[in-house]
Amino acid sequence: DIVLTQSPATLSLSPGESVTLSCRASQSVRNDIAWYQQKPGQAPRLVIYDASKRATGIPARFSGSGSGTDFTLSISPLESEDFAVYYCQQRSNWPRTFGPGTRVEI
Amino acid sequence: QLQLQESGPGLVKPSETLSLICSVSGGSMSSSAYYWAWIRQPPGKGLEWIGSLSYSGTTNYNPSLKSRVTLSVDVSRKQFSLKMNSVTAADSAMYFCARDSDWVDGFDIWGQGTTVTVSS
Q1: Contacts of A43 in chain B (CB under 8 A)
Q2: How many angstroms separate the CA atoms of A99 and A94, rounded?
């Protein structure tokens, strides 16, 4: 199975700041990485797919990059509604796997 | 706009079988571009993929759960289902169904989730 590692586990920031989240895969996943945002009590929401493409309705302040084993999700500037947990997920191979998440908090 | 809705018992006894249904509305299940997935999230923890299946019934399972899980689909009723046997307290979680899309290479549509508690 492909293991995804996310860092840091938690980030404490303020609205208006910029943030970069990291996701590292245990083997190459090409660009088959997606990022999800999850707020308390809600289902996850697809933010980025194919490592760098924004999903429908996602604002331009979200951007993704990377290929192979190292990926990043950037948010600039942070808005109040962006404070949430972010998960990366690979679909290069079965089984699908998720990273443990990064919490972006105020 | 396609929507997913989970349903099933919120309480299951240890050693029994957990059964959930995901109902699909507002669109078709019959496309080779999609898999239909189950994902769970224990309280306060991360996301765990359980398995995915195509409209034709091709399945892929999480190896850690494969021996206890069965996924099935009924395209005519626009439903897919999850059965997990021999449950324990460790299976208590929020269970989500989701569409696993080849078009966007991700889980692009999610149900709201249903909480399942395993307790006697």
Answers
A1: 96, 98, 110-113
A2: 15
